[in-house]
Amino acid sequence: MTKAVILGTGSCLPEHTLTNAELERLVDTSDEWITSRTGIRNRRIAGKGEQNYQLATKAARRALAVTGIDPEELGLIVVATISPHMIMPSTACFVQAELGAVNAFAYDINAACAGFTYGLDLASAYIQSRPDMKILLIGAETLSARVNWEDRNTCVLFGDGAGAVVVAGSNDGRGVFGSNLRSDGKLWNLLYMDSPQSLNPELQRDEWQGAHIRMNGGDIFKHAVRLMEDAVTSLLRKHDLTVNDVGLMIPHQANIRILNNLRERLGISEEKVFVNLSHYGNTSAASIPIALDEAHRHGRLVRGDVVLLCTFGGGLTWGSLLMRW
Ligand code: ACO
Q1: Residue numbers annotated as active site
Q2: Distance in Å, CA 263 to ligand 1 centroid
Q3: pTM for this structure?
Q4: How far is the CA of 237 from the centre of ligand 1 (A)?
Q5: pLDDT per residue over 71-105, tens digit each?
Q6: What CATH fold (topology level) applies to the domain 176-324?
Q7: Using CA atoms, how far apart are residues 139 and 295, in angstroms rounded to an integer?
Q8: If DSSP codes are grouped into helix, strand and coil, which group holds residue 251?
Q9: Which atom of ligand 1 approaches the CA of 29 most closely?
Q10: What residues does each domain of the chain span?
Q11: Cβ contact 180:195 at 8 Å
Q12: Average pLDDT value for the chain
């Protein structure tokens, strides 16, 4: 059976690093508070020439270079993002134009921090019906444009960046073989980004401040740990696997305490969990593809190994995905 395999990975992080010490000068916080509560030490902040689609395009070029696939061979470009370059057209259309991927159709998806994992599941479904398709899947965010830099509860957590993968069909036993994606829209108000001011006064809501991230950190923490644990254990059980069968787990990079709690509940050893959040903070939909690319380049992804993704974000959206690398 044809399965969706990742042929190549790439990532692009903005040049500028914002340290915890610099944040101490912006809001009432401390390096000690941020490091002990979140594990984050640095995050990258986009500057001129580093719009969402530009980071996405650079990450995509790097992933394509690894595979030797020409942009014209791409049939589909999907960008997972909650900080698109524009509301319309999609960031994916900008990437398509930049790459000259004239044979691809292109669109964005919004599943918050779970966007890349949802996107890989989507790519896997396309491969079932069109096994010859070459798909470019990108997670890209410029969240620095969407956080309130006066709100210490949120501005210390997020960063900018992009990660990309090239997906194609394969019949050699490798590829995506299971997923468990979930949502709960009733809990939307635990983590959200409101809308720009409405030009229709009848549709305006006074509480909308203009596309800022708002969060109930404590509740998000509890739901994230419990729901990711559930998503992982039920998926492994369905495939008759245990954490011992997993070669590498790549979780959404939000917070080291969430990851440590999750790791302990799952009983998975520290060396099997890829963590890079101290360098980049939470890059939402970009966090897993950036981590995948680093893991790939550092030789942490071994051909034939079971790779487990797990994720959690606003919506709520969460889930897990299994693939043989
Ligand atoms: N610096 C200093 N103090 C701060 C800061 C800060 N940057 N941010 C909040 N505080 C204060 C609060 O105002 C509060 O003060 P108060 O008690 O006077 O009201 C106090 O710290 C809260 O302290 P704690 O309860 O000890 O904080 P907690 O241990 O809950 O940590 C945190 C807060 C880090 C936000 C935690 O709840 C968390 O990690 N939640 C998950 C958030 C997350 O990862 N969101 C990302 C999006 S979802 C996702 O991607 C999975």
Answers
A1: 113, 252, 282
A2: 20
A3: 0.96
A4: 33
A5: 999 999 999 999 999 999 999 999 999 999 999 99
A6: Peroxisomal Thiolase; Chain A, domain 1 (3.40.47)
A7: 16
A8: strand
A9: 1
A10: 3-172, 176-324
A11: no
A12: 96
